[in-house]
């Protein structure tokens, strides 16, 4: 499934999906070190995260300008909110080192629930927030975020 707004779709941003899927299938994702690993310059790296989910309202929407985010759930269940509308309103300046900018909550966004083995690909400039609880109890999540540059 690729869900994107046609007005913001840039095909060249998505040419690296096969490489990302090959990495997910060929790597023992239960043993990747927490933090950044498997880096290939600015074009690719793996960010391994572990945390307890929280009410999604505790998190702000963010966007990235240099890389796509592929969120893959190794363990647990998580809600992610994503808006394909890239007409966002910034609430912070852009942090070039971290490739992140926080934005206002979009008027319309989609709720995606990811379970073990699921992934979602979030395009550049697409507002999103992560780490959300599904239901009323937090769960432990181990997640791989592949950062895919051009």
From TrEMBL:
InterPro entries: NanQ/TabA/YiaL (IPR004375), NanQ/TabA/YiaL_sf (IPR037012)
Pfam family, one: DUF386
One Gene Ontology cellular component: cytosol
Source organism, top-level taxon: Bacteria
NCBIfam families from the UniProt entry: YhcH/YjgK/YiaL family protein (TIGR00022)
Record's protein name: Beta-D-galactosidase
The species this protein was found in: Limosilactobacillus fermentum
